[in-house]
Specification:
By secondary structure, the chain is mainly beta. It has one domain. It is built from four helices and 21 strands. The chain has an eight-stranded mixed sheet, with no helix packed on it.
Length: 277
């Protein structure tokens, strides 16, 4: 199973009345889940090293999409979700959660007003978190040992006059040796343009700008009626009026949106792709 690719989607108005869920939510619970006598902290080092990917055999990809979850996580990989590549995503509210699992690579994402939520990782999970922009320190739960590669991330600190080592991240992960904290210098947060300017410290860490104006539907007929999510407020912002919101939308282009996607990718046939229309 696996091999799904969710790309260029615009997913919002999700998890409005409950919690512990996400705009994208997946469960693992594959055949290794709950096996008695199996040490999952060291399973990748022994004779059962291939066990975690017997079911999640092909990598699931989340890319070039915009997510907003109001009472959960924007991207929620729960309960053993394994074998994911998550890149070029704009997360507007709930951040990115990785619970128990293996082989999750997260890179070049922007986590607005939030951060990485690492929950109960195994000691040798082979997870990777690099080249991302976060707005706050990581939010770990029951973490004993962090994984092999967490580095080159930027902790966004608005209006910070100079760039410094990201000590708040380093204290949590015991890694992030090259990660920095400083102003990311976004193009225009008010209209949701989280590309960075040419003098942004994020670029020195390997971050690469990705398009912020082609999430969701592409059909002109659908674009004409599509909505877009509410943009996050900064500490200095006041709630925009309806006319201001419409003006901002027109400045940034037509609103784009895919149908709301609450996905458990394992419930679909192998190789499913969700594409814009």
């Amino acid at each position: 199973m696996g091999g799904h690719h969710i790309d260029h989607c615009d997913v919002f108005d999700t998890v409005k009345e409950t919690g512990d869920h996400g705009s994208f939510n997946s469960w693992g619970r594959d055949r290794w889940w709950g096996v008695k006598g199996l040490d999952l902290d060291t399973v990748l080092q022994g004779p059962h090293a291939k066990l975690p990917v017997l079911d999640a055999a092909e990598t699931n990809i989340l890319s070039n999409s915009r997510w907003r979850c109001d009472h959960g996580w924007d991207i929620d990989l729960d309960d053993g979700s394994t074998n994911y590549h998550i890149y070029n995503n704009l997360c507007l509210n709930g951040g990115l959660k990785l619970r128990e699992g293996f082989y999750r690579t997260c890179e070049n994402n922007v986590l607005v007003n939030n951060s990485l939520h690492p929950h109960v990782w195994y000691n040798d999970s082979h997870d990777i978190f690099r080249g991302n922009i976060v707005f706050g320190p990581y939010k770990p739960i029951q973490m004993r040992q962090w994984t092999q590669d967490i580095d080159f991330n930027l902790l966004h600190q608005p209006a910070m006059p100079q760039t410094n080592p990201a000590t708040a991240l380093q204290k949590l992960s015991s890694q992030d040796a090259h990660s920095l904290q400083g102003d990311a210098l976004f193009m225009d947060e008010a209209i949701g343009d989280y590309r960075v300017k040419s003098n942004s410290p994020a670029l020195s860490l390997g971050f690469v700008n990705f398009n912020m104006d082609d999430f969701g539907v592409q059909s002109p007929k659908l674009k004409a009626i599509a909505r877009q999510p509410m943009m996050p407020l900064r500490s200095s912002d006041t709630m925009p009026t309806l006319s201001e919101t419409r003006s901002r939308r027109s400045r940034f282009g037509q609103a784009r949106r895919c149908a709301t996607l609450l996905a458990s990718v394992k419930s679909q046939p192998q190789g499913v792709q969700v594409k814009r229309v």
